[in-house]
Amino acid sequence: MSVPVSQMWTVASYVIKQKLMGRKRYPLVLMLEPLFRCNLSCAGCGKIQYPDHILKKVLSADQCLAAADECGAPIVSIPGGEPLLHPEMPQLVEGLVARKKYIYLCTNAILLKSKIDQYKATKYLTFSVHMDGLQEEHDEAVCRDGTYAKAIEGIKEALKRGFRVTTNTTLFDGAKSERVREFFDEMMKLGVEGMMVSPGYSYSKAPDQNHFLKRQKTFKLFREIFFNGKKSWRFNQSPLFIEYLAGSRHFECTPWGNPTYNIFGWQKPCYLLQDGYVKTFNELLETTNWDNYGRKSGNPACQDCMVHCGHEPTAVDYTFGTAKGFWGTVKATLSGPKIHAPDSPIFPFMSKPKNFVSEYEQSENSEKVMKNG
Amino acid sequence: MANAFEKREFVQGVSLRVSDADFYDGLRAVVDYRGDCKILLKDGSEAEGYIFNFTKLCVDLIPVDSEQRKSFLISNIAEIIFSGADAAAGKSWEDWMKRKAAQKSHQAASSDAASHA
């Protein structure tokens, strides 16, 4: 694992503190979306399709810092849109660093080289560069040729100046395991601190609906990628999450683990679904019907989701909240994640999901009962 | 108005009346819609913008021409029209792949022609 010790310590002590305080639901990573505008239009992205007047809106640095204070998560991830297009991004980063938040600034790196002078290298700031594979796969995924080369240029410049740089890769149906392995080798050669990888989520608004992975396919792909994985590969994510992706263990979703704040407010229930917005973080925690989300709930929107924003918080909670989880993480860190062979028939046990009734159907049914006496 | 057997498709130009049987399905579609909508109120006034949220009581909108978000009581609404273009429509993966394939075959044809010249 490539996460620096100071960051690991911050997260571990935070989680243990939440446990000692008896908090059942606590945030781990704030997903801060200060704008939706982007300089790319990727086929798998459901975040940027809005009318122009919405795309022109941004959260101010002060609004973002207030959200970070309200939420209290030790890590702040800044996706978007493209954060480097935000006029107050340097001030926002500075404010978060002053609060000792670990920041993942998620960028496609097109503007990284030209804007890097505005930032100072610190252990708190990581440029998390969107890279969906080697040149051919990446340019295809982001629907623009030349983006891979531009991103590599940005990564090299950031590394040269002493910044922490990680890559963030979303894998879709059709991804070739050998090519992904080659891509990992290439990123390690570049010298990035670590890599993050996750299967894509099928946003109803993403133009590409046919290329998202389903659960069994996800297991197969990740087993092919990680079986006999190389010791030289470093990941900036929990090794237990990698075991989960490869079907070596099962985690349920922790939708409140990575709460999302954007120009509409606090998003219910998670980074991926948009079931309404509320004004405060407490309102989000208290008014969301959490039983309606995650695979176990039977909610059709959650059945095939294995994305890191919901399942990595579960892995982290398991690591720092249980002796078994802690030991599993130590073991996976020292000797690599436990991965079954791609053709292995062993899959994790998953309880049967409940019969899902949406909140609207629930209230409609109760109204009918009241009307009929 | 939709009958009990068919579900309407909520696309640009469609109108949703409070009296419609599928009004609440329509509201769900309104917040899913990635274009602007126009709200016509019972008192004759109207507002246009992006509707991002609804509860049992009200609908929240960011106006096209103002920073000040507005909430409207559902009981005051007469009709909602899907007025703006859907920003999520018409940019498919297939279109991108077709363009890529066309570009590749064009490049191959050009280099063939150049080598024969």
Please describe what this structure looks like.
The complex is a heterodimer of chains A (373) and B (117). Chain A has a 9-stranded mixed beta sheet with strand order 6-5-4-3-2-1-7-8-9, sandwiched between helices. In chain A, 39% of the residues lie in helices and 13% in strands. In chain A, helix 3 runs parallel beside helix 4 (89-98). Chain A has helices at residues 5-20, 52-55, 61-71, 89-98, 112-115, 135-141, 147-160, 177-190, 215-226, 239-245, 281-287, 308-321, 323-335, 359-371, and strands spanning 29-33, 75-78, 102-107, 125-130, 164-171, 194-199, 260-262, 265-269, 274-278. By secondary structure, chain A is α/β, with parallel strands linked by helices. With 117 residues, chain B is an alpha+beta fold. Chain B has 2 domains: 1-86, SH3 type barrels (Roll), CATH 2.30.30; 89-117. Chain B has 2 helices and 6 strands, in the order E-H-E-E-E-E-E-H. Chain B has helices spanning 23-32, 93-116; strands at 15-17, 37-41, 46-54, 58-63, 70-73, 77-81. In chain B, a hairpin with a 4-residue loop joins strand 2 and strand 3 (46-54). Chain B is elongated and about 75 Å long. The model of chain B has no long low-confidence stretch (mean pLDDT 87). Classes of the chains: A alpha/beta (373), B alpha+beta (117).
On the 0 to 100 scale, the average pLDDT of chain A is 92
Helix content of chain B: 25-40%
Cα radius of gyration of chain B in angstroms: 22 Å
**Interface with most residues:** A-B, 27 and 27 residues
Q: Report the CATH topology name of the largest domain in chain B.
A: SH3 type barrels
Task: Specify the CATH class of chain A.
Answer: Alpha Beta
